[in-house]
């Protein structure tokens, strides 16, 4: 809302999404940098990064809770704007997405194209790369793997191969 240079948009959802309890999470002020660490690995250095935008963030956080209970050191990055994040200094970008952490998962309830720049060769994207599904939103999302369990499974697969 305060951005004066370049176009801006507010992208809203018609989906009924849960309200995120920010207790124990980073404050929302990080959104102005395009991406920020929303939930950090309590064990220290993360072994995997989960990146999510908008309506996918609650899935990332639900998977985070399950993975932390299993002892997985996972970081959740909220990434609402690639362009704004890319405009940040290299030091900040490295702080949020350390290049040494190759195990990465992006969750995008749309086309996965473009996420490869953030997940790299060893990462994975849970996305929808086809057109034509028709059903109630919750049913479509479940069929396409947008559940906490599917995210946890994808994380385990990435960690097994990295």
What is the makeup of the main sheet? 5 strands, mixed
CA gyration radius, whole angstroms: 15 Å
Which CATH class? Alpha Beta
Write down the overall geometry: globular
Gap from first CA to last CA: 40 Å
Which CATH architecture?
3-Layer(aba) Sandwich
Counted up, domains total 1
Sketch the topology as an H/E string, one letter per element: EEHEHHEHEHH
Structure write-up:
There is one protein chain. By secondary structure, the chain is α/β, with parallel strands linked by helices. The protein has one domain: Rossmann fold. The protein is 31% helix and 13% strand. It is built from 6 helices and 5 strands. Strands 1-3-2-4-5 form a 5-stranded mixed sheet. Helix 1 crosses helix 6. The chain is globular, with a radius of gyration of 15 Å. The chain starts with 35 loop residues before the first strand and ends with a helix.
What does this entry show, briefly?
This protein has 162 residues and is of the alpha/beta class. It has helices at 57-69, 82-86, 90-96, 116-119, 137-143, 148-161; strands spanning 36-39, 48-52, 74-78, 104-107, 124-126. The chain is 31% helix and 13% strand.
Short key terms for the protein model shown above:
162 residues, alpha/beta, Rossmann fold, 31% helix, globular
Give the SSE layout.
Elements: E1 36-39, E2 48-52, H1 57-69, E3 74-78, H2 82-86, H3 90-96, E4 104-107, H4 116-119, E5 124-126, H5 137-143, H6 148-161
Parallel strand pairs: 2-3, 2-4, 4-5
Antiparallel strand pairs: 1-3
Helix pairs in contact: 1-6
